[in-house]
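Q: Could you write out the predicted structure for this multi-component system? I'm mainly interested in how the pieces pack against one another.
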Amino acid sequence: MRHVPTIASRELRSLFVSPVAYAVLTLFVLLAGFFFLSSLLQFEEYILRMQQFQYFDQMKELNLNDHVIAPFIGVMSVVLLFMIPGITMGLFASEKANHTDELLLTSPLTIWDIVLGKYLAAAAFVTLLVALLALYPGILLLYGDPEIEKTLAGLLGLWLVGLAYAGIGAFASSLTRNQIIAFAFSFVLLLVLWMLSFLADLGAAGGAIGSATGIADVLRWLSTAEHFERFVKGLVDTADLAYFGVLVASALVLTKFAVESVRWR
Amino acid sequence: MIEARGISKRYGEHVAVDDVSFEVTRGEVVGFLGPNGAGKTTTMRILTGFLPPTDGTALIDGHDMLTDPLQARRSVGYLPEMPPLYPEMDVEGYLRFVAAIKGLPRGARKQAVERTLARCGLLDVRRRVIGSLSKGYRQRVGLGQAIIHEPPVLILDEPTVGLDPVQIREIRALIASLAAPGPDGIQHTVILSTHILSEVEAICQRVILIHRGRKRLDAPLAQIVQGGQGLEAVFARETARDEATAPEAASA
Ligand SMILES: Nc1ncnc2c1ncn2[C@@H]1O[C@H](COP(=O)(O)OP(=O)(O)OP(=O)(O)O)[C@@H](O)[C@H]1O
Ligand SMILES: [Mg+2]
């Protein structure tokens, strides 16, 4: 595994000379600014209205965390759903297109060197995205007093969601030589994973799986949204941390098998 | 140095390589011949460990490609049919990356990169982005990644494709010098595939010819061309004989 840093740094350098990385960064920062401002303005308007009607009791319940930061982090997790497949689509697909898979797989590297190196590069990019995003709630520290712990928990949740998405995106990329297909496939996978809890609710409401509540519970447990929301509420629980750990590990193991299978086809 | 023991490769029903065995000793330069689709690339991919054989095994410098793959791969330099290049990297950065993944110690990499740039005529383009190079220069970079770690075994799949006549001569001289016992004491063993028969006559001591996945001929060049018959005539005879006798050719 001593070649992991070599693979990771090459991947990062390639990522940062590609227009995709800059397109994703720019779009992400702009969208973040837009959503942040809009939730801030909405909050302001809300306060004004409450003052007008003299709902002082309800006003005490208003706070920056629940009404600005939480919705902001929530919407950014949806933005990641689109952005991360763009970052991961080339991880393995482009190696096949460049025929460099023949170089990597005939060099004295293990498959784990390749898979972990590439994942690490994607994870570093995700970390950069989340760090940039943290600047926006950071601004609020200057003007108000949001609960720092709750904010950090939310950001941690977002980071974990991003890391999990990167693992799944890496897996999708390992299945094809076409980056567009890799993008579409990881997007679909992520969307399904995100929506599992809605499916569970729908199924329960429709009575389809209402009787077998076990299935609904399992679907809900599998859903990223379910675990992410607990972080946003400020709850950092080992069970939720473990969920993301298991998700990343499974995605990487699947990726390893997919890369290896080139040899056995 | 290189040993193929009963190598076969099937793609579904299709047999691409059929029970091929041979041995290449240190310092030999072997020309690997055969018509299109004969199974040359497939055989080379098996020798380098990119593809597993359906049957048989490959040994490089005594290391079994299946049971001791890391040691075996460390001993091979491989130029695939399509040079494996990252178009967005510059030549020097690419070679430095290859030096690292081939296992060269950190301190030896810089010198290895310089030596390779000089050997492959790449000094003028060292800072150029690979994607902007001409085909011939990309082929040279591909050759560079195969030799940068001074592997005892070189497996080159059509190494002179796309080069200009002067370059072809230089690369041939380079390959010949790699196989000669050099001052550095490293004597390379080379298998190269090609469709240019004069290339074989220029640098190879031995010829292995395969056709439809089967080995048809394995002899020293001097022996093949003795009696005045050209390599081309032998090639035509060996590949035609099969067309006439192969049952699948009759039914197709
Ligand atoms: N991935 C694959 N799947 C199915 N068949 C394949 C695959 N790769 C090669 N083949 C088949 O195996 C046979 C041998 O191919 P190979 O590329 O080894 O030939 P070659 O001798 O290198 O030919 P050329 O001189 O054209 O490079 C061909 O019939 C080819 O169609
Ligand atoms: Mg070929």
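A: Regarding packing and overall arrangement: The interface with chain B takes residues 3, 6-7, 10, 13-14, 17-18, 98-110, 263-264 of chain A (CB under 8 Å).
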